[in-house]
Amino acid sequence: MKRSGLITTKIGMTRLYDEAGVAHAVTVLSVGDCAVIGNRTTEKNGYVANILGLREAKAKHVAKPQAVAAEKAGVKPYRKVVEFRVSDDCVIPSGTQLSAAHFIAGQYVDVQATSKGKGFQGAMKRHNFGGKEATHGVLKAHRSLGGTGMREWPGRVLKGKKMSGQMGNETVTVQNLKVFGTDIAENLIFVEGAVPGSNGTFVLVTDAIKKVQGQLPVPTFVATKEEVAEPATEAEQA
Questions:
Q1: Looking at the structure, do residues 10 and 100 belong to the same domain, yes or no?
Q2: 91 and 187: one domain?
Q3: What is the mean pLDDT of each run of 10 residues along the chain (238 residues)?
Q4: Owning domain of residue 148
Q5: Do 64 and 82 sit in the same domain of this protein?
Q6: Which long-range contacts (CB under 8 A, 24 or more apart) does 121-130 make?
Q7: For position 43, which CATH number holds?
Q8: What is the pTM of this model?
């Protein structure tokens, strides 16, 4: 069984307390208006997947191919659109509004987001180099990375050598983060630990592939009006 993931937005970090009064540092992720806007089938596409969208946008604010595709599908264009490959029993009908209760407290998830960009950085900050000596003839080169050349053979700098350059602003996946709880009323997910990216970053959340999960909603959880009225957790926010 392979369930669909969710597209969320990183709100920030805070501190929540469990029943024993122990504080936990958690990251707050907002599911918002995440919904299924289409499906991929084996007969037509060669694989099975759910197409999810987050944050409705006007057609003039998205690229023309995405706007045309949304119009043909009969749905509104979304700012963020992602495919999640799933098994046959986890296909979610198009138009389904997804909830934070898609994940349950205590399970483990993998998160993926774009890390913070730190610009052009030297080798010491980017790769944790030790730098040169503070004395013994070293002049104005204390933070340089040293020689990068080779001997007569191969006579060049090998590809992939750790050097100065762009740091951050890349796709980062963090595995096996525990779900502290959910708030169905506000459509929030509380994940223990840090999540890549700055506040407002789109974060993809999926079931952890390296953990054995318990009973999870299949293919997803659809909240009723009575369940939406009460939060899923009663954690006290600091």
A1: yes
A2: yes
A3: 95 96 97 93 96 91 88 88 95 93 96 98 96 94 90 90 96 97 95 97 97 90 58 51
A4: 121-168
A5: yes
A6: 121/164, 121/165, 121/166, 121/167, 122/164, 123/162, 123/163, 123/164, 125/167, 126/162, 126/164, 126/165, 126/167, 127/162, 129/162
A7: 2.40.30.10
A8: 0.86
